[in-house]
């Protein structure tokens, strides 16, 4: 490969990275829910869930896998939601996982991520909200066989973009002075 051609392609790399980064920020919006999990208020816990520093540690177990669920979060009037959270996974086998999921208006939970290793911040898009959705609950759980296996959550944030597709009041044709009044 000609060096000039390589340098031109290499020069485009920062532009591509910046474009991809900006695309990732397209979901940024208003914060609908945020918790550092310093305490577990705002969450329902079942199974083996322990406070950690920082966050909460979900432990596996034959009968008592840890589960951490938010109270319903108001999402009425929002679209393009994005869940961002910090996580670490320890000791899981390939068939086990830490799971992040969501439920709309009390319906079944829809998995966003199943992870068996790794850690750090992750952002996941929730783009498929049904029209008229009013609430969303987040769920974090571990599917593991013993309490030495852990899924640790240390920060959770849900953002949403206000839904500006509402055309507003089309007006009452019989109401003079109404912007929707044709006459």
Task: Chart the SSEs and their pairings.
Layout: H1 3-24, E1 30-35, E2 43-46, E3 49-51, E4 56-59, E5 67-70, E6 73-74, E7 78-90, E8 97-104, E9 110-115, E10 119-126, E11 135-143, E12 150-162
Antiparallel strand pairs: 1-12, 2-5, 3-4, 4-12, 5-11, 6-11, 7-10, 7-12, 8-9, 8-11
Walk me through the structure:
The structure is a single chain. The protein is mainly β and 183 residues long. It contains 1 helix and 12 strands, in the order H-E-E-E-E-E-E-E-E-E-E-E-E. The strands form 2 sheets. Strands 1, 3, 4, 7, 10 and 12 form a 6-stranded antiparallel sheet that branches. Strands 2, 5, 6, 8, 9 and 11 form a 6-stranded antiparallel sheet that branches. The protein is elongated and about 50 Å long. Mean pLDDT is 80; it is low at 1-27.
How far is the first residue's CA from the last residue's CA? 69 Å
Question: What gross morphology would you assign?
Answer: elongated
Largest sheet at a glance?
Answer: 6 strands, antiparallel
- What gyration radius follows from the Cα positions, in whole Å? 22 Å
Count of beta strands: 12
Helix content: 10-25%
Low-confidence stretches: 1-27
**Residue share in β-strands:** 35-45%
Secondary-structure class: mainly beta
Helix and strand sequence: HEEEEEEEEEEEE
- What's the pLDDT, averaged over the residues? 80
Query: Please, how many helices?
Result: 1
């Amino acid at each position: 490969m000609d060096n000039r051609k390589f340098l031109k392609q290499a020069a485009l790399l920062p532009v591509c990275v910046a474009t991809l980064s900006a695309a990732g920020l397209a979901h940024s919006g208003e914060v609908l829910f945020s918790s550092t999990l310093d305490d577990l208020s705002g969450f329902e816990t079942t199974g083996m869930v322990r406070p950690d520093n920082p966050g909460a540690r979900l432990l596996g177990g034959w009968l008592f896998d840890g589960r951490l669920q938010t109270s319903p979060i108001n999402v009425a009037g929002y679209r393009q939601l994005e869940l961002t959270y910090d996580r670490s996974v320890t000791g899981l086998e390939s068939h086990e996982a830490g799971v992040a999921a969501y439920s709309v208006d009390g319906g079944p939970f829809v998995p966003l991520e199943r992870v068996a290793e790794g850690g750090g911040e992750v952002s996941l898009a929730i783009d498929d909200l049904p029209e008229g959705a009013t609430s969303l609950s987040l769920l974090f759980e571990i599917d593991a066989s013993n309490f030495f296996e852990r899924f640790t959550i240390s920060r959770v944030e849900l953002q949403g973009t206000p839904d500006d597709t509402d055309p507003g009041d089309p007006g009452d044709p019989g109401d003079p002075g109404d912007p929707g009044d044709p006459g």
